[in-house]
Each structure stands twice: as C-alpha cells, then as structure tokens.
Design goal:
With 252 residues, the protein is α/β, with parallel strands linked by helices. 38% of the residues lie in helices and 16% in strands. Helix 1 runs parallel beside helix 2 and helix 2 packs antiparallel against helix 6. The chain is globular and about 50 Å long.
C-alpha cells in the first residue's frame, strides 16, 4: 500500500519537529512527498535557516513560509502583520495556495488547543488550517490561488491526558499544559525508529536550544528519556472528503 503525501502546517519553526517530526521522517523514508508550511517568521531570518536544516534532516523539502510575525516576537517578520492580527481571509488564501500547489492527501496541524502550550499562534494556525483544508477544494474560492484540490484527511497533533505527567517532568509543574481525553486520540504513532532524526531536527533549531525554550529543555535529556517523552506522536483525525480511503491513514 502506498504511503500518502503529507503537508504539515505549524505556527513556528521547531513546531514541526516537536509535534510531527517522527511522522514526517517516517513518511519521507517510505517514499511519500512531505512538506511543511510555517505561519510565522520571515525567510531572511536565522530561525528560517534553522527550519531549513530541520526539514532537510526530516526529508520534508524546502521551507514554505507564510511570513507573518510571531505574536510575541515582532522582529520575526519586520514590516509584516502579526499572524493573529492578519485578515483571516488573506491567511486562508495564502495557505490554500500552498495546499493546491502541493496537493497533499493528508494535512497535519495543531489541535484546537494549539498543542500543549496553547500559544495564540498555534491556536490561530489551527483555525486557518481547518478553513484552508476545506476551502482548497472549492473551485470558486480564490481561483487565482490555483486549481482546486481536496485533501482527504486532516490530522490534529495533540497530547492525551496520560502523557502529561511525563511531560511535566521537563516543562515543570507551573506551566499550563493542554491535553485531551485519551479516547479522543485516533492515531498514536510509534516514531521510535525515526527518533534519531527527530532529535537532530529539534536540535537544529539552535536559537531555541540556546535560549532555553522547549528544544533547550529536551537537549538535556538522555536518549532513553527522549524515547519515553517523544517516541510517540498523537493525532485526532478528521475526514475531509466524502470517502476517505485507507491510503490516507498515517503510517502507524
């Protein structure tokens, strides 16, 4: 059975590696087309260069950047609107153009919480991606953005309640974490065989390691601790097409 093409849409450089690095590496290794769209940061910034290296490691092609500013880092895209402040239709149209150009069978993005951190850029990326994944298949929606293409399924990267205690050992008890009931998770992907690539991709975001963000916290861990914390990736699946064949399953 062929492995479906996959386009991941995440808010910031490093989100792709942390939330779906194993799945991206796994699909790429199986010969599937994989790509990543990132909502924030400009192409001529250091973090965009780090993103390019992470995607090279994961086999996910060149960066695709919407180019908006990070909600908390205005210099991430000088002269551009913050992603959360940009007109919704504009952001959806920009993402639709990427979906139509790439023509993925699967789209992956943050869950409605915006992942465990609840960062506003994550939440907004979820909103924009859900709308764009549906609108991409509508012929009369911004036809200048390309020929219509309907992805078959949308997978939301998430964390089950049962994974939070181990996560708190890294991020600390005082930080708020957002998770979903375990029964809402529809795909739990063992990415152990691709963990080495995932680790390398996370650590490629060197500025985040150096400033002590999540990649920096993870950099202190041993390989067994990485496997326990990051060896599984969880998703909630939503079908977008009337019929979604088995070839749109994430490889598990």
């Amino acid at each position: 059975m062929s492995v479906p093409s996959l386009l991941a849409v995440f808010a910031h450089p490093d989100d792709e590696s942390l939330s779906a690095g194993g799945v991206l590496a796994r699909h790429a290794a199986a010969g599937a087309r994989t790509g990543v769209v990132t909502s924030t940061w400009a192409a001529d910034t250091g973090r965009a260069a780090e993103l390019a290296e992470a995607l090279r490691i994961l086999g996910a092609g060149e960066p695709r950047l919407l180019g908006y500013a990070d909600a908390r880092v205005p210099w991430s895209a000088p002269g551009r609107a913050r992603f959360c402040d940009a007109p919704l239709d504009e952001a959806v149209r920009r993402l639709v153009a990427h979906i139509r150009a790439f023509r993925p069978q699967i789209v992956v993005t943050h869950d409605a919480y915006g992942g465990v951190t609840g960062h506003p850029d994550h939440v907004h990326t979820h909103r924009v991606t859900v709308l764009a994944a549906q609108a991409a298949g509508l012929a009369r929606f911004h036809p200048e953005a390309g020929a219509p293409w309907q992805p078959r399924a949308l997978y939301l990267a998430t964390h089950p309640h049962s994974a939070v205690p181990a996560l708190r050992e890294v991020v600390g008890e005082r930080k708020t974490t957002y998770s979903v009931p375990d029964e809402q998770v529809t795909a739990a992907v063992d990415v152990g065989p691709w963990l080495e690539r995932k680790i390398a991709a996370v650590l490629a975001h060197r500025s985040e390691v150096e400033r002590g963000a999540v990649p920096g916290l993870l950099a202190r861990l041993s390989v067994p601790e990485w496997k326990r914390l990051m060896g599984t990736e969880w998703f909630i699946r939503h079908d977008l097409a009337t019929t979604a064949p088995a070839c749109t399953e994430l490889t598990v």
